Structures are given as structure tokens and as C-alpha cells.
Amino acid sequence: MVTTDLLSELFCSRVEELGDEKGLTAHEKERIIKVFQQALANPFMDEQQIYAKLTGEARL
């Protein structure tokens, strides 16, 4: 059974893996993971809010 914890763990490990391949900094990878966790916790967060947080247009 897929749980929120499992999904989060898989996502985070994949972000780390792909981030290393693509040359992302630790800060960039951490930002992606934080936004994912916020979106997972907030079902009302839409794609515009996610984009704004990923691009730094909104505060984490």
C-alpha cells in the first residue's frame, strides 16, 4: 500500500538523484522538497502557488 510517507520518501530520493545528475545545488533540491511537502500537506495549493514557491516568487 502506498502511504504519504512512502510517497514522500520516494519523491525525495528521486529529487536527490536527478538533482545530482542535473547539477542542482543542495539549496535548490531542498526548495523542491519543501514545496512538495507543503503541497502534500495543503490540498488547496494550486499549480500557480507551487510554481511561485519553486521560482522564489513566494516565501517558503
Explain this structure.
- This protein has 60 residues and is mainly alpha-helical.
- It has one domain (4-55).
- Helices cover 73% and strands 0% of the residues.
- It contains 3 helices and no strands.
- The longest helix has 19 residues, at 4-22.
Count of DSSP H/I helices: 3
Q: Quick check: average pLDDT?
A: 93
Task: Supply Rg.
Answer: 12 Å
**Which sequence of SSEs, written as H and E, runs from N to C?**
HHH
Task: Report how far the terminal alpha carbons are from each other.
Answer: 31 Å
Helix content: over 70%
Question: What is the strand tally?
Answer: 0
Estimate the strand proportion. Answer: under 5%
The dominant shape is flat
In the predicted model, the low-confidence regions spanning at least 5 consecutive residues are none
The total domain count is 1
The biggest sheet amounts to:
none
Write the topology of this structure.
Layout: H1 4-22, H2 26-41, H3 47-55
In short:
With 60 residues, this protein is mainly α. It is built from three helices and no strands. It has one domain (4-55).
Main attributes?
60 residues; 0% strand; 73% helix; flat; mainly alpha
